[in-house]
Specification:
Elements: H1 14-30, E1 35-41, H2 45-53, E2 57-58, E3 68-74
Antiparallel strand pairs: 1-3, 2-3
Amino acid sequence: MSITVAPERRGGGLAGALLRAGEDALRERTGTGTPLIAVVHRDNTASARLFARAGYVDDGTGPDDDGFRTLRRIL
Protein backbone atom coordinates (compact mmCIF):
# COMPACT_ATOMS: atom_id res chain seq x y z
CA MET A 1 0.00 0.00 0.00
CA SER A 2 1.27 3.46 -0.83
CA ILE A 3 -0.19 6.84 0.06
CA THR A 4 1.22 10.15 -1.07
CA VAL A 5 -0.29 13.48 -0.06
CA ALA A 6 0.82 16.78 -1.61
CA PRO A 7 2.94 18.80 0.83
CA GLU A 8 0.43 21.62 0.99
CA ARG A 9 -2.34 19.17 2.01
CA ARG A 10 -0.41 17.36 4.76
CA GLY A 11 -1.38 17.55 8.41
CA GLY A 12 -5.13 17.62 7.90
CA GLY A 13 -5.93 13.92 8.27
CA LEU A 14 -6.21 13.26 4.55
CA ALA A 15 -3.75 10.35 4.58
CA GLY A 16 -5.71 8.59 7.31
CA ALA A 17 -8.94 9.07 5.39
CA LEU A 18 -7.33 7.71 2.21
CA LEU A 19 -5.97 4.70 4.08
CA ARG A 20 -9.37 3.91 5.61
CA ALA A 21 -11.11 4.34 2.24
CA GLY A 22 -8.63 2.01 0.55
CA GLU A 23 -8.99 -0.59 3.27
CA ASP A 24 -12.78 -0.33 3.15
CA ALA A 25 -12.81 -0.79 -0.64
CA LEU A 26 -10.53 -3.81 -0.38
CA ARG A 27 -12.63 -5.30 2.42
CA GLU A 28 -15.74 -5.00 0.22
CA ARG A 29 -13.98 -6.96 -2.52
CA THR A 30 -12.11 -9.57 -0.51
CA GLY A 31 -13.75 -9.74 2.89
CA THR A 32 -11.59 -10.01 5.98
CA GLY A 33 -8.30 -11.85 6.32
CA THR A 34 -6.49 -10.12 3.46
CA PRO A 35 -2.85 -9.35 4.27
CA LEU A 36 -1.87 -5.70 3.76
CA ILE A 37 1.68 -4.43 3.33
CA ALA A 38 3.07 -0.92 3.68
CA VAL A 39 6.69 -0.11 2.85
CA VAL A 40 7.93 2.92 4.78
CA HIS A 41 11.30 4.65 4.68
CA ARG A 42 12.97 4.77 8.09
CA ASP A 43 13.12 8.60 7.90
CA ASN A 44 9.39 8.96 7.17
CA THR A 45 8.14 9.14 10.74
CA ALA A 46 4.76 10.64 9.76
CA SER A 47 4.01 7.67 7.51
CA ALA A 48 5.16 5.19 10.15
CA ARG A 49 2.83 6.84 12.70
CA LEU A 50 -0.08 6.76 10.24
CA PHE A 51 0.26 3.03 9.63
CA ALA A 52 0.94 2.27 13.31
CA ARG A 53 -2.28 4.07 14.31
CA ALA A 54 -4.11 1.93 11.75
CA GLY A 55 -2.79 -1.29 13.31
CA TYR A 56 0.16 -2.08 11.02
CA VAL A 57 3.17 -3.65 12.74
CA ASP A 58 6.79 -3.84 11.71
CA ASP A 59 7.52 -7.36 10.50
CA GLY A 60 11.16 -7.10 11.61
CA THR A 61 12.65 -7.59 8.14
CA GLY A 62 14.00 -4.08 7.64
CA PRO A 63 15.20 -1.61 7.08
CA ASP A 64 16.72 -2.90 3.88
CA ASP A 65 19.80 -1.44 2.17
CA ASP A 66 17.73 1.50 0.89
CA GLY A 67 16.30 2.25 4.34
CA PHE A 68 12.81 0.83 3.85
CA ARG A 69 10.97 -1.34 6.35
CA THR A 70 7.85 -3.42 5.88
CA LEU A 71 4.72 -3.00 7.97
CA ARG A 72 1.91 -5.54 7.87
CA ARG A 73 -1.70 -5.83 8.92
CA ILE A 74 -4.44 -8.38 8.33
CA LEU A 75 -7.63 -6.75 7.11
